[in-house]
Amino acid sequence: MTHRRNFLKAAGIGLAVASVPKLAGASVSRAVSSKSDFNFNLGVASYSLRNFSQEEALNMTLRCGINRITFKSMHLPLDSDNETIKKAVALCRKKGVTLYGGGVIYMKEKKEVDQAFEYAKTAGMEMIIGVPNHELLDYVEEKVKDYNIKLAIHNHGPGDKLYPSAESAYDKIKDRDKRMGLCIDIGHTKRINRDPEQDLKDFFDRVFDIHIKDVTKAASDGKTCIIGRGVIDFSSFLKAVDKSGYKGTLALEYEADGDDPLPGMMESFGYIKGVMRMM
What are the distances in angstroms from CA 124 to CA 44, 97, 242? Predict the structure, then answer.
Protein backbone atom coordinates (compact mmCIF):
# COMPACT_ATOMS: atom_id res chain seq x y z
CA MET A 1 0.00 0.00 0.00
CA THR A 2 2.86 2.36 0.78
CA HIS A 3 4.40 1.72 -2.64
CA ARG A 4 1.05 2.35 -4.33
CA ARG A 5 0.54 5.61 -2.41
CA ASN A 6 4.02 6.75 -3.41
CA PHE A 7 3.35 5.89 -7.03
CA LEU A 8 0.01 7.73 -7.08
CA LYS A 9 1.68 10.73 -5.48
CA ALA A 10 4.42 10.64 -8.13
CA ALA A 11 1.87 10.25 -10.92
CA GLY A 12 0.04 13.25 -9.50
CA ILE A 13 3.23 15.27 -9.72
CA GLY A 14 3.56 14.15 -13.33
CA LEU A 15 0.00 15.27 -14.11
CA ALA A 16 0.63 18.59 -12.42
CA VAL A 17 3.73 19.17 -14.49
CA ALA A 18 1.80 18.32 -17.65
CA SER A 19 -0.99 20.77 -16.83
CA VAL A 20 0.84 23.83 -15.47
CA PRO A 21 1.91 26.17 -18.30
CA LYS A 22 4.96 27.49 -16.43
CA LEU A 23 6.32 23.95 -16.29
CA ALA A 24 5.44 23.10 -19.88
CA GLY A 25 8.96 23.58 -21.18
CA ALA A 26 10.69 22.18 -18.14
CA SER A 27 12.97 19.19 -18.38
CA VAL A 28 11.14 16.08 -17.26
CA SER A 29 14.19 14.90 -15.34
CA ARG A 30 14.49 18.18 -13.42
CA ALA A 31 10.77 18.54 -12.80
CA VAL A 32 9.67 15.12 -11.66
CA SER A 33 12.50 12.65 -11.32
CA SER A 34 14.37 11.58 -8.23
CA LYS A 35 17.24 10.63 -10.53
CA SER A 36 19.73 13.32 -11.43
CA ASP A 37 19.15 12.83 -15.14
CA PHE A 38 17.79 10.63 -17.92
CA ASN A 39 19.50 10.12 -21.24
CA PHE A 40 16.23 10.02 -23.16
CA ASN A 41 13.64 12.70 -23.90
CA LEU A 42 9.85 12.64 -24.11
CA GLY A 43 8.10 13.83 -27.24
CA VAL A 44 4.90 13.79 -29.26
CA ALA A 45 4.19 12.20 -32.63
CA SER A 46 1.80 14.75 -34.09
CA TYR A 47 -0.53 12.08 -35.49
CA SER A 48 -1.87 12.14 -31.93
CA LEU A 49 -3.24 15.60 -32.77
CA ARG A 50 -4.29 14.85 -36.33
CA ASN A 51 -7.61 16.72 -36.17
CA PHE A 52 -6.00 19.97 -35.11
CA SER A 53 -4.03 22.66 -36.89
CA GLN A 54 -0.25 22.95 -36.82
CA GLU A 55 -0.29 25.72 -34.22
CA GLU A 56 -2.94 23.98 -32.13
CA ALA A 57 -0.83 20.82 -32.16
CA LEU A 58 2.20 22.74 -30.90
CA ASN A 59 0.17 24.45 -28.18
CA MET A 60 -1.34 21.15 -27.04
CA THR A 61 2.10 19.54 -26.98
CA LEU A 62 3.32 22.32 -24.70
CA ARG A 63 0.29 21.89 -22.47
CA CYS A 64 1.47 18.31 -21.92
CA GLY A 65 4.79 19.66 -20.66
CA ILE A 66 6.59 18.43 -23.78
CA ASN A 67 8.80 20.37 -26.18
CA ARG A 68 9.79 17.80 -28.81
CA ILE A 69 7.64 16.78 -31.78
CA THR A 70 7.61 14.97 -35.10
CA PHE A 71 5.21 16.30 -37.71
CA LYS A 72 2.86 14.05 -39.64
CA SER A 73 1.84 15.30 -43.09
CA MET A 74 -1.44 16.87 -41.91
CA HIS A 75 0.65 19.33 -39.89
CA LEU A 76 3.26 19.90 -42.56
CA PRO A 77 2.32 18.47 -45.98
CA LEU A 78 5.04 16.55 -47.75
CA ASP A 79 4.59 18.66 -50.90
CA SER A 80 5.03 21.94 -49.02
CA ASP A 81 7.23 24.53 -50.71
CA ASN A 82 10.35 25.81 -49.01
CA GLU A 83 8.63 28.93 -47.69
CA THR A 84 5.86 26.91 -46.03
CA ILE A 85 8.36 24.58 -44.41
CA LYS A 86 10.50 27.44 -43.15
CA LYS A 87 7.43 29.14 -41.65
CA ALA A 88 6.58 25.93 -39.80
CA VAL A 89 10.12 25.64 -38.47
CA ALA A 90 10.04 29.30 -37.38
CA LEU A 91 6.76 28.74 -35.53
CA CYS A 92 8.26 25.74 -33.71
CA ARG A 93 11.25 27.82 -32.67
CA LYS A 94 9.05 30.69 -31.54
CA LYS A 95 7.10 28.35 -29.30
CA GLY A 96 10.20 26.56 -28.04
CA VAL A 97 9.38 23.19 -29.60
CA THR A 98 12.07 21.11 -31.29
CA LEU A 99 10.90 19.63 -34.61
CA TYR A 100 13.23 16.66 -34.64
CA GLY A 101 11.64 14.50 -37.31
CA GLY A 102 8.86 13.82 -39.76
CA GLY A 103 6.62 10.83 -40.14
CA VAL A 104 5.37 8.32 -40.50
CA ILE A 105 6.25 8.84 -44.20
CA TYR A 106 5.43 6.08 -46.68
CA MET A 107 7.72 5.62 -49.67
CA LYS A 108 6.37 3.47 -52.48
CA GLU A 109 8.22 5.12 -55.37
CA LYS A 110 11.59 6.78 -55.88
CA LYS A 111 9.97 10.18 -56.24
CA GLU A 112 8.47 9.78 -52.76
CA VAL A 113 11.92 8.99 -51.38
CA ASP A 114 13.29 12.12 -53.07
CA GLN A 115 10.44 14.20 -51.68
CA ALA A 116 10.88 12.87 -48.14
CA PHE A 117 14.59 13.66 -47.97
CA GLU A 118 14.22 17.15 -49.47
CA TYR A 119 11.39 17.84 -47.03
CA ALA A 120 13.48 16.70 -44.05
CA LYS A 121 16.53 18.63 -45.22
CA THR A 122 14.61 21.88 -45.66
CA ALA A 123 13.05 21.52 -42.21
CA GLY A 124 16.39 20.66 -40.60
CA MET A 125 15.03 17.37 -39.26
CA GLU A 126 17.32 14.83 -37.63
CA MET A 127 15.45 11.85 -39.01
CA ILE A 128 12.66 10.51 -41.15
CA ILE A 129 10.34 8.03 -39.48
CA GLY A 130 9.48 6.06 -42.57
CA VAL A 131 8.11 3.00 -44.26
CA PRO A 132 10.00 2.45 -47.53
CA ASN A 133 9.06 -0.44 -49.80
CA HIS A 134 11.63 -3.21 -49.67
CA GLU A 135 12.70 -2.74 -53.28
CA LEU A 136 13.58 0.91 -52.52
CA LEU A 137 16.00 0.22 -49.68
CA ASP A 138 19.10 0.46 -51.89
CA TYR A 139 17.90 3.84 -53.16
CA VAL A 140 16.99 4.99 -49.64
CA GLU A 141 20.47 4.05 -48.45
CA GLU A 142 21.96 6.28 -51.14
CA LYS A 143 19.83 9.17 -49.92
CA VAL A 144 20.78 8.57 -46.29
CA LYS A 145 24.43 8.86 -47.30
CA ASP A 146 23.89 11.91 -49.52
CA TYR A 147 21.76 13.86 -47.06
CA ASN A 148 23.21 12.57 -43.77
CA ILE A 149 19.67 12.21 -42.42
CA LYS A 150 18.69 9.15 -40.41
CA LEU A 151 15.90 6.83 -41.47
CA ALA A 152 13.96 5.10 -38.68
CA ILE A 153 11.69 2.35 -40.02
CA HIS A 154 8.38 2.12 -38.17
CA ASN A 155 6.70 -1.24 -37.48
CA HIS A 156 2.90 -1.46 -37.68
CA GLY A 157 2.13 -4.86 -36.18
CA PRO A 158 -0.57 -7.28 -37.36
CA GLY A 159 -1.57 -6.83 -40.97
CA ASP A 160 1.57 -4.91 -41.95
CA LYS A 161 3.06 -6.81 -44.87
CA LEU A 162 6.24 -4.72 -44.98
CA TYR A 163 7.39 -4.30 -41.38
CA PRO A 164 5.08 -5.97 -38.85
CA SER A 165 7.84 -6.05 -36.21
CA ALA A 166 11.08 -4.31 -35.38
CA GLU A 167 12.84 -7.56 -36.23
CA SER A 168 11.41 -7.61 -39.76
CA ALA A 169 12.87 -4.13 -40.34
CA TYR A 170 16.14 -4.89 -38.57
CA ASP A 171 16.78 -7.87 -40.80
CA LYS A 172 16.54 -5.58 -43.83
CA ILE A 173 18.90 -2.86 -42.60
CA LYS A 174 21.33 -4.49 -40.15
CA ASP A 175 24.11 -4.66 -42.76
CA ARG A 176 23.38 -1.28 -44.28
CA ASP A 177 24.56 2.24 -43.43
CA LYS A 178 24.53 2.86 -39.68
CA ARG A 179 22.14 5.77 -40.19
CA MET A 180 19.40 3.33 -41.19
CA GLY A 181 17.56 2.12 -38.14
CA LEU A 182 14.28 1.65 -36.32
CA CYS A 183 11.40 3.51 -34.76
CA ILE A 184 10.00 0.83 -32.47
CA ASP A 185 6.28 1.28 -31.91
CA ILE A 186 5.75 -0.58 -28.66
CA GLY A 187 1.97 -0.68 -28.99
CA HIS A 188 2.05 -2.40 -32.37
CA THR A 189 4.83 -4.62 -31.03
CA LYS A 190 2.57 -5.73 -28.20
CA ARG A 191 -0.35 -6.25 -30.59
CA ILE A 192 1.72 -8.82 -32.49
CA ASN A 193 2.38 -10.49 -29.12
CA ARG A 194 6.06 -9.58 -28.97
CA ASP A 195 7.86 -8.16 -25.96
CA PRO A 196 8.78 -4.48 -26.55
CA GLU A 197 11.47 -4.68 -23.88
CA GLN A 198 13.14 -7.66 -25.54
CA ASP A 199 13.01 -6.02 -28.97
CA LEU A 200 14.66 -2.93 -27.50
CA LYS A 201 17.48 -5.09 -26.16
CA ASP A 202 17.86 -7.27 -29.26
CA PHE A 203 17.94 -4.45 -31.82
CA PHE A 204 19.27 -1.63 -29.67
CA ASP A 205 22.18 -0.77 -31.96
CA ARG A 206 19.69 0.51 -34.55
CA VAL A 207 16.98 2.03 -32.35
CA PHE A 208 16.72 5.72 -33.25
CA ASP A 209 13.20 6.52 -32.07
CA ILE A 210 10.48 4.90 -29.95
CA HIS A 211 6.73 5.44 -30.25
CA ILE A 212 5.03 4.84 -26.94
CA LYS A 213 1.39 3.92 -26.50
CA ASP A 214 -0.58 1.45 -24.40
CA VAL A 215 -2.98 -1.14 -25.82
CA THR A 216 -5.95 -3.02 -24.44
CA LYS A 217 -4.65 -6.48 -25.28
CA ALA A 218 -1.67 -8.33 -26.77
CA ALA A 219 -3.61 -9.28 -29.88
CA SER A 220 -4.41 -7.91 -33.32
CA ASP A 221 -7.67 -6.38 -32.08
CA GLY A 222 -5.95 -4.55 -29.22
CA LYS A 223 -6.76 -0.84 -29.25
CA THR A 224 -4.78 2.19 -28.17
CA CYS A 225 -5.67 3.36 -24.68
CA ILE A 226 -4.38 5.76 -22.06
CA ILE A 227 -0.96 4.70 -20.81
CA GLY A 228 -1.31 2.81 -17.56
CA ARG A 229 -4.72 1.40 -18.43
CA GLY A 230 -3.53 -1.27 -20.86
CA VAL A 231 -1.36 -4.37 -20.84
CA ILE A 232 2.13 -2.91 -21.33
CA ASP A 233 4.33 -2.90 -18.22
CA PHE A 234 5.68 0.65 -18.48
CA SER A 235 7.61 0.45 -15.23
CA SER A 236 9.66 -2.44 -16.57
CA PHE A 237 9.95 -0.94 -20.05
CA LEU A 238 11.14 2.45 -18.86
CA LYS A 239 13.70 0.83 -16.59
CA ALA A 240 14.99 -1.13 -19.60
CA VAL A 241 15.17 2.07 -21.66
CA ASP A 242 17.07 3.82 -18.88
CA LYS A 243 19.43 0.90 -18.34
CA SER A 244 20.15 0.67 -22.07
CA GLY A 245 21.46 4.23 -22.17
CA TYR A 246 19.06 5.13 -24.97
CA LYS A 247 19.56 8.79 -25.91
CA GLY A 248 16.66 9.27 -28.28
CA THR A 249 13.03 10.24 -27.82
CA LEU A 250 10.04 8.38 -26.44
CA ALA A 251 7.31 9.96 -28.54
CA LEU A 252 3.70 9.47 -27.51
CA GLU A 253 1.56 8.41 -30.47
CA TYR A 254 -1.91 8.54 -28.96
CA GLU A 255 -4.33 7.13 -31.53
CA ALA A 256 -7.52 7.24 -29.45
CA ASP A 257 -9.97 10.12 -29.06
CA GLY A 258 -9.01 11.94 -32.26
CA ASP A 259 -11.38 14.83 -31.63
CA ASP A 260 -10.39 15.28 -27.99
CA PRO A 261 -6.99 13.68 -27.36
CA LEU A 262 -5.56 16.10 -24.82
CA PRO A 263 -7.03 14.58 -21.63
CA GLY A 264 -5.76 11.12 -22.58
CA MET A 265 -2.38 12.49 -23.62
CA MET A 266 -1.98 14.41 -20.38
CA GLU A 267 -2.94 11.41 -18.29
CA SER A 268 -0.52 9.26 -20.29
CA PHE A 269 2.35 11.67 -19.75
CA GLY A 270 1.39 12.00 -16.10
CA TYR A 271 1.65 8.24 -15.72
CA ILE A 272 5.01 8.12 -17.52
CA LYS A 273 6.40 10.94 -15.40
CA GLY A 274 5.07 9.25 -12.27
CA VAL A 275 6.93 6.07 -13.19
CA MET A 276 10.06 8.11 -13.87
CA ARG A 277 9.68 9.79 -10.49
CA MET A 278 9.80 6.35 -8.85
CA MET A 279 12.93 5.21 -10.72
Answer: 18, 13, 27
pLDDT digits (tens, 9 = 90+) for 24-37: 444 443 344 445 58
User: Cβ(93)–Cβ(67) under 8 Å?
Assistant: no
Claim: this prediction has a pTM higher than 0.85: yes
Rounded Cα distance, 85 and 72, in Å: 13
Name beta bridge partners: 131: 106
pLDDT, tens only, 52-75: 999 999 999 999 999 999 999 999
Write the Ramachandran bin of 228: left for phi over 0, alpha for psi from -120 to 50, otherwise beta. Answer: left
How many other C-beta atoms can be found within 10 angstroms of the C-beta atom of residue 231?
Answer: 15
Q: What is the helix (H) or strand (E) element at residue 265, kind and residue range?
A: helix 262-278
3-class DSSP assignment, residue 153: strand
